Amino acid sequence: MSHTAQAIRARLSIVLALGALLTWALCVPVEGRAEPSPGMARGGHSEHGGAMRDFAGHAIHRLLEHQKDLGLSEDQSAKIKTVAADYAKTRIRGEADFKLAEVDVRTLVRDEKADLSAIETAMKKSEGARTALRLEGVKALRTATAVLTPEQREKWRAGMRERHSPKREG
């Protein structure tokens, strides 16, 4: 076989292997999907397969959505937008860390030869990434609400309580 034919065959083998890997990656269920929304990132999944709620992103988005109702100044709006953008980036990175850790967990669980301590370590890494993601949300929300005056903060909380209270039919 000529050198050129061997080189082509080697490249073809690499392309086929990458194609198989890509097909596997797309067909294996992923623990979550990032779904960016205006200023936030939403998505992710809990260990039970349900959506991991982005309470902080939702709350910050609501602040910006109701900036006129709350009487936010341009400076306050700009600061909250910066917090929202920074948090969106942090959330995307955090979700990626969590998803990568979950891939490691699934890979080890499927490997019958994998040591239980390695599986435990991988699971702890996954839970650590999830906890870090949630904590970043709390930090971002506190940073955003610190921009508000006490009156604005109370008005915002009252609006949130109203939106989340059960609706009564009348």
**Mass-distribution shape:** elongated
CATH architecture of the largest domain: Up-down Bundle
What CATH first level of the largest domain would be assigned? Mainly Alpha
N→C terminal distance = 85 Å
Low-confidence stretches: 28-51
Whole-number tally of structural domains: 2
Q: Strand arrangement, largest sheet?
A: 1-2
Q: Cα-atom Rg, whole angstroms?
A: 23 Å
Roughly what fraction of the amino acids lie in strands? under 5%
In sequence order, what are the helices and strands, one letter per element? HEEHHHHH
Largest sheet: 2 strands, antiparallel
How many individual helices?
6
The total strand number stands at 2
* CATH fold assignment of the largest domain: Four Helix Bundle (Hemerythrin (Met), subunit A)
Mean pLDDT: 80
In percent, how helical is the residue content?
over 70%
Can you describe this structure?
This protein is mostly helical. The protein folds into two domains: 1-30; 32-164, Four Helix Bundle (Hemerythrin (Met), subunit A). Helices cover 72% and strands 5% of the residues. Strands 1-2 form a two-stranded antiparallel sheet. A hairpin with a 2-residue loop joins strand 1 (34-37) and strand 2. Helix 2 (55-65) runs parallel beside helix 5 (116-146). The longest helix has 37 residues, at 74-110.
Which key features would you list for this structure?
170 residues; mainly alpha; Four Helix Bundle (Hemerythrin (Met), subunit A); 2 domains; 6 helices
